[in-house]
Amino acid sequence: MSQPPKDTADEKDSLHPRNRHRGRYDFAQLTQSVPELGSFVAVNAHGDASIDFANPDAVKVLNKALLKQFYGIQLWDIPAGYLAPPIPGRADYVHYLADLLGSVNDGVVVTGKRIRVLDVGVGANCIYPIIGHHEYGWRFIGTDVDPVAIRVAKQIVASNSGLTGAVELRLQPSSTNIFIGVTKPKEVFDLTMCNPPFHGSQAEAEASTRRKEQNLGTNKGPAPTPNFGGKPGELWYPGGEATFLWRLAEESALFRDTCFWFTALVSKKETLPGLYKSLQKLGAAEVRTINMAQGQKVSRIVAWTYLTAEQQQAWREKRWLAQ
Question: Which end of the chain is less enclosed by CB atoms within 10 A, N or C?
Fold first, then answer.
């Protein structure tokens, strides 16, 4: 049987310099934070303490421990089958967004509640608001089409006093709209962020999970189980990543004056040309691509704004520099 990927410092050296998860997990400390993690920890074939990353239950409990130890989250849980994402990679997205703001603020990262972030597809896990508020003090609006995800995310916020007043959750009533229907008139955002559904259908998502199971040697039956979990809306969207991002770009143009930076993770490099073409047609004033990597996994953030250099400066002076 092949072994899951080794949890090594080298694999995490490519993470953002401010990422708290560079280097190996300290399972002794994490187990002190959440004792139930201990039942999942064992010495792997490399002689290191680790968990079975192919086991969604183990991944969820690891997330509980990471969120408690590094982000002060005392109570966090999600229903079975919902996405329990790899926290180091999620933290990277947040840190690169902080750098993005800093790049138009004389290199100084903008912190505090004056920064408002819209998280499209917040999920039951509420990971991005948790990390973004803890690290930078930003305020978040999280949206999702799944009422259960919104209910669970609200429970997480209500159960952790550190999130009080920092995170608002809104149900997106339309399965096709992204910004329309969840934003209020004249509501302003400094950032939007989104981790789009990767696959184009449930069958495609299941085939991908099956390939992962075969690579890890963990395929045990006819029904594949994603190691990080995930409901259909979290894993697939009709037309896949490219179609979702096209729709996101189209709707972003409707809010060109009320958001500074629109951003999204793009997993497939084949998606990039079409997205760039759409943004050019829509009149984006600036488009940036920020490369990210964790071990062998390579992804990128595409960020765009409709604000000219003069408008960017005016935004900065009004929202970030004004006391």
Answer: C
Domains and CATH numbers, the chain: 79-321 (3.40.50.150)
The pairs formed by 229-232 with CB atoms below 8 angstroms and a separation of 24 or more are 229/56, 229/59, 229/60, 229/78, 229/80, 229/81, 229/82, 229/83, 229/84, 230/81, 230/82, 230/83, 230/205, 231/81, 231/82, 231/83, 231/146, 231/149, 232/202, 232/205
The pTM is what? 0.87
Tokens of 127: 């990971």
* Residues 72, 134 contacting (CB under 8 angstroms): yes
Terminal Cα-to-Cα distance of the chain (whole angstroms): 60
Phi-psi region of 230 (alpha: psi -120 to 50; beta: other; left: phi over 0): left
Locate 82 and state its tokens.
């919902």
pLDDT at 41: 97
Q: Which residues pair with residue 140 across a beta bridge?
A: 117, 167
Question: Which pair of tokens denotes residue 75?
Answer: 């109570």
The rounded distance, in Å, linking the Cα atoms of 262 and 288 is 10
Amino acid code (one letter) for 228: F
What pLDDT sits at residue 226?
55
Low-confidence ranges of the chain (pLDDT < 70): 1-12, 198-237, 294-296, 323
Helix, strand, coil fractions of the chain, as percent rounded to 5 = 40, 15, 40
**Crossing angle for the helix pair 87-103 and 127-136, to the nearest 10 degrees:** 50
